[in-house]
Amino acid sequence: MRDPATGPIVGAPTGPSVVRPAGQGRRARLRVTRVNPLSVTRLTFAFSLCVFVVLMVAVAVLWFVLNSIGVFDSVVNAADTLTDGSNGGVRTWLSFARAMELGLLIGAINVILMTALATLGALLYNLCTEMVGGIEVVLGDQ
Q1: Residue bearing the bigger pLDDT, 7 or 25
Q2: Other residues' Cβ atoms within 10 Å of the Cβ of residue 35
Q3: Cα–Cα distance for residue pair 34/50, rounded to 1 Å
Q4: Which are the contacts of 19, defined by CB distance < 8 A and separation ≥ 6?
Q5: Are 10 and 2 in contact (CB under 8 A)?
Q6: Whole-prediction pTM value?
Q7: pLDDT in tens, 33-71
Q8: Integer angstrom CA distances of residue 30 from 24, 101, 108, 139
């Protein structure tokens, strides 16, 4: 709205205007004050399942590589030498099935622990943000 006596727009800022250089977008400062624990649980569970699959593939590949270069045969021969050949359990412990069982056990424990700890972390984050206000994030537009 123009003031007929003075000419400028009434209520318009009189100070220097903000001029953005070309190519620079808007910015917004936001604060993350709450994280949904259920969404953190779902995301962490999916992520830990991916880690589980990678772990199982890595155990299988590592076992095949070590078996192909003869590491397990050397260990069995050394155990037989040290125990006068009466120790047959070493070969069972070094079998592919045992390696995959151990990988499965460690992977399952990892899935449970990662999911539980991330959910607990989300709950603790929500408690702490009530006291300090959260994490400030600056978002930019291009």
Answers
A1: 25
A2: 16
A3: 26
A4: none
A5: yes
A6: 0.70
A7: 999 999 999 999 999 999 999 999 999 999 999 999 999
A8: 19, 47, 37, 7
